[in-house]
Design a protein that fits this description.
two-stranded antiparallel sheet; mainly alpha
């Protein structure tokens, strides 16, 4: 089965499950074990902006790993330093955006993944609900709903949680991760050149995907579906790499930031 067909099956059935889960209600679909789960889902297929940031993350992670390795070889026993490197840091820029529309990503994602108007409508409803759920959580916590760095951190934490079979980052690690990503986005030239529209799409992309991973992984975990858990772990791993540029086993998240092995 192709990637797109898997996504279509997921969209047709999981959207109802996700809405139940996001609302905190029991899911009859999960209880009946009739949901499909993705095998190779990667949201980069629909977002040029996100693919650019993924490519940048992978490149910078590789450079940082080489730099840390070189430092360690020059000083035996030295502990790898955290990102960013010791090169002069550009002036910090904004990691937020001024909204240009109520929503951007849900419609774009639905158009890319759905083959029929009916299917696109269902997918858009699911993605829209996921986005509003994420925004609602931010509002309840008194946090801004336009912080791209924080949305990226949420996707990393969701990916880590799924990839590690439900083991979360602790509060100190979360603080270090958010600091790391704020530094990254505030100094990355590619991101700083992005328009408000591109930043908003990236924020929504991160928030929707992270919410979807949380919902999907918890559904299959509650149902005891071992094959489903394997597939959602893979999805979490893919998205972890998409933001940090390396797989979970090659990254150490500490209160000080992110280190690459």
């Amino acid at each position: 089965m192709t990637r797109k067909n898997l996504l279509k099956r997921l969209g047709r059935t999981l959207w109802v499950v996700s809405l139940f889960t996001l609302a905190g209600l029991p899911s009859p679909t999960a209880a009946q074990r009739t949901y499909p789960t993705p095998k190779v889902y990667n949201p980069n297929v629909y977002s040029r902006t996100r693919q650019v940031m993924t490519d940048r993350a992978i490149m910078r992670a590789a450079l940082e790993k080489r730099r840390q390795s070189s430092s360690s070889n020059g000083a035996p026993g030295a502990r790898p330093s955290t990102f960013p490197s010791s090169k002069p840091t550009p002036p910090a820029g904004s990691v937020t955006f001024r909204p240009v529309a109520d929503q951007i990503a849900p419609r774009n994602m639905a158009l890319a993944l759905g083959d029929t108007p009916e299917e696109q409508k269902r997918l858009e409803a699911m993605f829209s609900e996921a986005l509003e759920h994420y925004r609602g959580r931010l509002k309840q916590a008194g946090l801004p709903t336009n912080d791209v760095a924080r949305a990226a951190a949420y996707l990393v934490t969701a990916g880590y949680y799924a990839a590690n079979d439900g083991v979360p980052l602790d509060d100190a690690q979360l603080d270090g991760l958010r600091k790391h990503l704020r530094e990254f986005f505030s100094t990355d030239e590619t991101f700083q050149r992005m328009s408000d529209r591109e930043r908003q799409e990236l924020f929504e992309d991160y928030g929707i995907t992270a919410t979807w991973i949380d919902a999907g992984f918890n559904i299959v975990k509650q149902a005891g579906d071992h094959e489903g858990l394997r597939q959602w772990r893979q999805m979490g791993r893919q998205n972890f790499v998409a933001v940090l540029g390396a797989p979970p086993e090659s990254v150490v998240i500490t209160p000080r930031g992110v280190e690459y092995k």
